[in-house]
Amino acid sequence: MSILKALPSRRNPQAIQQYLLQEKKLRNSFISGSQVRARNFGKQFDQVQQLYGKTTGRRYYHYILSFSPEETQQLSPREVNQMGVELAEEFFGKKGYQFAVVTHTDTDHLHDHIVVNAVNLESGKKLHTSRQDLKQMKSRVNELCQSRGLQPIPQRNEGITNGEYWAAARGQDVWKEELREAIDCVRQKAKSYDDFKATLENEWGVTVTRDHGRGMTYIHPTNGKKVRGQKLGPAYDKPSLMKAFTTEKEAAYHARSQDDYEERHRKKDKLERVEEEMYRGWSL
């Protein structure tokens, strides 16, 4: 059974590139791109957006095409990547929109991350999609699955929602996984806890509330559901985040102190050599 999910995406595309191309996620994996160098797609998306002066609002569209652990046994990363490419080419590539397909193999289910530039390479026109577009994409995924002997995306009238499927397949709700992904991306770039919260809200639409010394609550940007940080896992709660930012800040401080210390000694050594040469000249 496959699942196609759309994620919110208002941040700089270089951030999603950095997250998706982590080495630990790419073992035995495949990366493809259309009208873009796949391993540098974020930077090239950003360059096109800068060219047309369209760097606000939605900057890219992010879809996840995932397969169950059982289907993962029948598919290779190459096949999964090719399905993502076929889907993206039909709905975006043919219309002049750049895209990258990154296939991850770091979980028990193979999945594609399909990232599409929201600004058209040829015309500079912004891409706008609707629920009907997503419905048509899911219909095309069903055709791709059925041609390979796989189960189609479950319909709502079959008594299962995307979230229910993910909860069963992964032991967690999809909206919570979306929050984890957003948090993982932001904390890699944030310089402080305040910067972390501001970036979450401004670029992801994720609000942090009930923020106190013992914990915090995240609010999902699309469904408005709330979850305590500790419910997402210890790494997503305030104590762990504060410790991480404090450790990084201290490490940066010590690194700067060491650089300053070495620079002072280099200058001192240089001054001593100059003075030595001066005294040698006077003694002649």
TrEMBL record:
The record places domain MobA/VirD2-like nuclease at 19-150
For the region Disordered, give the residue spans.
Answer: 253-272
Show the Pfam families listed in the entry: Relaxase
| Record's protein name | MobA/VirD2-like nuclease domain-containing protein
Could you tell me which species this protein originates from? Megasphaera elsdenii
What lineage does UniProt assign to this protein's organism?
Bacteria, Bacillati, Bacillota, Negativicutes, Veillonellales
